[in-house]
Amino acid sequence: MAYTTKKAPATEKKASLSYWSKDKCTCPVCKKPFEREIMRSGNGRMNAGNLSDELHRDYIPSARFGKVYPLIYDVGACPNCYAAFFWYDFTEIKKDVVADRIFDSTQKRKASMENIFPYVDLKEERNLFSGAAMYYLALQTYDLMEADALPTLKKAIISLRLAWLCNEINDRCSGHNYDYISQCFYRKALFFYQQALVNEQARTEKCSTLNNFGPDQDKNYGWDGVVYLTGLLEYKYGQKEDIQMRLKKLSESKTAIARIFGLGKSSKNKPGPLLEHARNLYDELTKELKDDDL
Fold first, then answer.
1. What whole-number distance in Å separates Cα of residue 49 and Cα of residue 61?
2. What is the three-state SS of 60-114?
3. Is 162 exposed, middle or buried (0-12, 13-18, 19+ CB in 10 A)?
4. Cis ω for the linkage preceding 215 (within 30 of 0)
5. How far apart are CA 25 and CA 134, in angstroms?
6. pLDDT of the residue at 266
7. What distance in Å separates the CA atoms of residue 166 and residue 164, rounded to the nearest whole number?
8. Cβ atoms of 73 and 50 closer than 8 Å
């Protein structure tokens, strides 16, 4: 009697969210190479959901990959000196004094990160927690850069993304004050967005020349997005102790938002979602300013 051996089913290869690039990245601060992690695309990894009023794209969890956070792959952090940048800024730093300044603050940057995001290993595959830690390192690194690197607007975008990521951490693991930390980063974002407008007007930093204003990964909302977010963050997260100052800020934001409307009606290049959210913000600002007159 002949017997046949049943062939065992092939083991399905586990799908991954990211991979390590064949080309290493060289840190512009300590000059040491390190591995670069890149998120894969396709196969249902990124199912785009709603766009929030903060121009933040949500992604619908899938049965195969669960909840994904594409933002965490936009920055890189050197595991040797803890310098962190957007990947496109991992180039040679023009002035040695800047590189030296960043290198000399290595331990301070590391300790500050570990105070908020402990037990992070920069050499492992990143997750929501370690991704947020890398953004925090980037925030501190850009704080030491000079105006030609456009650090102010980059710090605004980084702070806003940190606020989003910390909210996600709190949703997944509440009770560790990441909701409070998120609010702190929202206020930082407001400060840096406002300062970016001031620097642009004073011509001390050419913020409007940044290639991508984000604030999220999937769409570039341009300088109008910067103006809109400055008003929105003031409305949602600005101080409320000095009412007269608040009303003055909201009135200025309303005027700036009105300019977006005027341009939007005559230009087909304005992103539709931005105009919709700007119109909603304009209505909210109008309501609060009128209510205060009652």
1. 9
2. CCECCCECCCHHHHCEEECCCCCCEEEHHHCCCCCCHHHHHHHHHCHHHHHHHHH
3. buried
4. yes
5. 15
6. 46
7. 6
8. no
Q: Quick one: pLDDT at residue 136?
A: 98
Per-residue pLDDT tens digits for 157-180: 999 999 999 999 999 999 999 999
DSSP string covering the chain:
----PPPPPPPPPPP-SEEE-SSPEEPTTT--EE--EEE---TTS--EEEE-TTSPEEE--BTTTBS--GGGGSEEE-TTT--EEEGGG-S--S-HHHHHHHHHTHHHHHHHHHHHS-S--TTSPP-HHHHHHHHHHHHHHHTTS-GGG-HHHHHHHHHHHHHHHHHHHHHHS-SSSHHHHHHHHHHHHHHHHHHHHHHHHHTSS-GGG-S---SSSS---HHHHHHHHHHHHHHHHS--SSHHHHHHHHHHHHHHHHHHHHHHHH-TTS-HHHHHHHHHHHHHHHHHHHHHH-
Residues of the chain with pLDDT under 70: 1-14, 261-271, 292-294
25-26 and 37-39 as β-strands: parallel, antiparallel, unpaired?
unpaired
Query: Cα 96 to chain center, whole Å?
Result: 27
Burial label, 93 (beta-carbon count in 10 A; 0-12, 13-18, 19+) = buried
Residue with tokens 């980084």: 158
Query: What span, in angstroms and rounded, lies between the C-alpha atoms of 144 and 146?
Result: 7
Residues 264, 273: Cα–Cα separation, whole Å: 11
257, 286 Cβ separation under 8 angstroms: no
The string of pLDDT tens digits covering residues 23-80 is: 999 999 999 999 999 999 888 788 889 999 999 999 999 888 889 999 999 999 999 9
> Residue 158 corresponds to which tokens in the numbers above?
């980084």
